[in-house]
Write a structure and sequence with these properties.
By secondary structure, this protein is an alpha+beta fold. The chain has 15 helices and 25 strands.
Length: 571
């Protein structure tokens, strides 16, 4: 355990927690103060942790399990009152045990009921180390791959590599000894076996631990046989749907010379912004442009180089959810409580899947409370329902998508990350696409592979010989007036989809109406913090995709120029 290979993952954490319009019930004459709101917010982040002999050691020896306690017990008692926690322990095979007899993975599940009648659930992974292994006596070295920080070149990195790797090794060792994530890694290392083959993309420490806790949860709740299995995309009846393919401008319905004009605009765009990107344009399934523009200071950008797609991940989540809807496992307007404990099935505090996808739960932020990798994230949400203005406000967030993902996991019996791989990425041959962190962001992909998702939507749920969902289910995904569901909300939103209408620069002039757009008004997609693009023009049979790390200067001006050139190129 002397050498470690680390690949950096950059995670965008948007941790704003907005004030709720709903107030927690108080004794007569009491009121909610700013301090009490802050205390409650802090309580939601409280964890149950082992009480070990050494604060730096998150591992324990065979013989007995460590005692468990809240990491901030006084805060918990001040906010929720005093209540006991009942702990249950499980081994690597999910057998309930009372004593750790062998080294390896163990999990705790604790449950308690507050004086207010709220059920509290928490769980975590611990590692039982071999009796005579002393982690602090190791001198680990981490071979940290180049991190493309602004202003740091590969040559500068190489000059300081010895110091970087030595310090990174120290960080790795401390992470193992001082964090629960260290127990997750040690459990993975303990379970590794040589197979002579490359591990699957879903065989990672974080996903293996995630699936372990999902299986344990379904066992505890007795839901292992509640749902039929989610079926893979089915063979399409009749003629195959269009797939992306290379072809001529005429075949794509473009004027001759359009591709070169678009390339020139993209090259100028890169030169002006300094931000490289990959662009794909396809019409009628025929690709006329698909290539990178520009290079990074630390190396080349190719059409196969994945970058962070940010909130376009929400679109991906909606496309996977469509398969659950299409197969009747989960309904768009199902209450979350029909699939998860602690949530009501009726009343004004009922959260539905539509709430989750249309940002109307009242929740805020992205990857709050540990996100999907918190085994009981949904319980944290359930414990604040009385404070949420459900169906009253539209607050853009990612945590609602994570809650929807938890429902899909319970119904699908597999981690959302494995479901993504088996039911979406692999069937579409999205080999450079990964997602293992969060459903509101964190998908890494390329313009070419995201364009396949775009063509799938353009085909109303099919791609080639595969049908992922029916045209009727596709229609259910489209943005709709939320006023029809929630009278206080004057917006249109879909299931992972929004209208991506680009106002025409001459709108209201030269005979164009005030609401004139570039391309049609029926363009669907989603926005992205990195300014990555997926736009699907349903009327013009068009897919535009662009992957990049960030917008850079003059993004809006160049995007408008680019989209105008696409439209002007139509035959």
């Amino acid at each position: 355990m002397k050498n470690w290979k680390l690949t950096p993952v950059i995670v965008v954490l948007l941790a704003a927690w907005g004030a709720s319009a709903a107030r927690e019930k108080q004794p007569q004459g009491a009121f909610v103060t700013a301090d009490s709101k802050e205390d409650f917010r802090e309580f939601l982040n409280c964890r149950v942790v082992p009480k070990l002999g050494n604060a730096w050691d998150y591992l324990f020896e065979p013989g007995r399990f460590p005692n468990l306690a809240w990491d901030r017990p006084y805060l918990v008692e001040r906010v929720m009152g005093s209540f006991p926690l009942k702990a249950r322990w499980f081994d690597a095979d999910l057998n309930e045990v009372t004593t750790p007899t062998q080294p390896g993975r163990y999990a705790f599940y604790v449950e308690g009921e507050t004086p207010q009648g709220k059920t509290i659930r928490r769980a975590g992974t611990l590692f039982c180390r071999p009796k005579y292994w002393f982690g602090w006596s190791e001198k680990a070295r981490a071979d940290l791959e180049f991190v493309p920080l602004d202003g740091v070149t590969r040559s500068t990195w190489s000059e300081h590599e010895e110091a970087i790797d030595t310090f990174a090794g120290r960080m790795v060792l401390l992470s193992i000894l001082r964090q629960q994530q260290g127990a997750v890694l040690m459990s993975y290392l303990h379970e590794m076996k040589a197979t002579g083959t490359t591990p699957s993309r879903t065989d990672t420490p974080i996903i293996r631990d995630h699936e372990y806790h999902l299986t344990l949860k379904r066992k505890i709740l007795g839901t292992q046989k509640k749902y039929p299995p989610l079926q893979r995309p089915r063979k399409k009846e009749g003629k195959n749907a269009p797939v992306l393919r290379d072809g001529t401008e005429s075949q794509a319905g473009f004027k001759i010379g359009t591709a070169e004009k678009l390339r020139a605009i993209c090259q100028q765009w890169y030169q002006e912004s300094g931000e490289p990107f990959i662009t794909l344009v396809a019409r009628h399934g025929v690709v006329i442009v698909h290539e990178p523009f520009g290079t990074w200071p630390w190396g080349p950008l190719t059409s196969e180089t994945p970058t962070e797609m940010a909130s376009l991940t929400k679109l991906v989540t909606g496309v996977l959810f469509a398969q659950f809807v299409d197969q009747g496992l989960v309904g768009i307007d199902d209450p979350v409580g029909a699939h998860l404990p602690d949530f009501p099935r009726e009343g004004d505090k009922t959260v539905t899947l539509r709430h989750c996808f249309t940002h109307t739960t009242g929740l805020t932020g992205h990857e709050e409370w540990g996100g999907l990798h918190n085994p009981w994230m949904e319980n944290v949400i359930a414990n604040q329902l009385d404070r949420l203005p459900i169906g009253k406000v539209h607050i853009y967030n990612g945590i609602g998508y994570d809650l929807a993902g938890r429902v899909m996991e319970m119904a699908g019996g597999k981690s959302i990350f494995r479901l993504m791989r088996e039911h979406l990425f692999d069937p579409l041959e999205m080999e450079n696409t990964t997602l293992e962190e969060d459903l509101g962001f964190s998908c890494f992909s390329t313009a070419g592979e995201f364009a396949r998702l775009g063509q799938l939507l353009l085909n109303r749920g099919a791609y080639g010989e595969l049908e992922f969902f029916s045209p009727q289910t596709f229609d259910a995904l489209l943005p709709k007036s939320l006023t029809d569901y929630y009278p206080d909300i004057k917006k249109e939103w879909g299931i992972g989809l929004t209208w991506m209408r680009q106002r025409h620069p001459d709108a209201g002039k030269n005979g164009l109406p005030e609401n004139a757009t570039i391309l049609s008004r029926n363009v669907i997609g989603h926005g992205s913090a990195t300014s990555a693009i997926l736009r699907v023009d349903l009327d013009n049979d068009l897919v535009i995709a662009q992957s990049r790390r960030r917008a850079g200067p003059a993004y809006g001006k160049n995007l408008t120029k680019f989209l105008l050139a696409v439209e002007e190129g139509f035959k």
